[in-house]
Please model this.
Amino acid sequence: MEYREEDYLQISGIQHFGFCRRRWALIYIEQQWQENVKTTLGHIVHENCHDDTIKEKRNDLIISRGLRVSSRELGVAGQCDVVEFRKSMDGVTLQGREGRWQPRPVEYKLGSGKKSTEADSLQLCCQAMCLEEMLGCYILEADIFYYEPHRRERVVLTGELREKVKTLLAEMHGYYSRGYTPLVKPKPACKSCSLVDICKPKLITRHQVAKYYDEYMK
Model:
């Protein structure tokens, strides 16, 4: 099955979906957003990453920023923060470049990495799968660069991780086509979410009005 371009979802959405399905729906279906300190700092971190006018060449390494990628099979499109192309006999050919080059996406995140969730790896894996479809290659590993400690964490793109990307994207497409916003499932991380005042996790888990009246009448 292949998706039409008008049905593509944003790659960045899978990170939100992996963290909280309701958060994803509020942002991408209901078009609601609210900033906090963390989201503002995140925008600042990504400013240079998404500047596609910046190109770097260091010996056998090409660094491309803000590279746009998409996948008909997955039905997604978006931008990679950084894609590194290293000269390799097992790589792919690039227009205007001699030799063969192996791509390796690098996703930039604000946090320290100590409390990183699988959601970050899902977004990175989705980017890699898009690159594979576009370039006709296979990517074994990728990296997440955590801004606070200025440290990379290697992510192995396992078959299990790839299958989870496909499963979650299929679920996201189903919700999006129905315009469905999942109910809240409160957890400690809700306190730091920028959408907590919109989502109101504590309020929405209260008893329904009909149930309240039923209990009251009894």
Summary: The first helix runs from residue 13 to 19. The CA atoms of residues 145 and 152 lie 4 Å apart. Helices lie at 13-19, 21-28, 37-49, 118-135, 159-178, 196-199, 201-204, 209-217. The first strand starts at residue 9 and ends at 10.
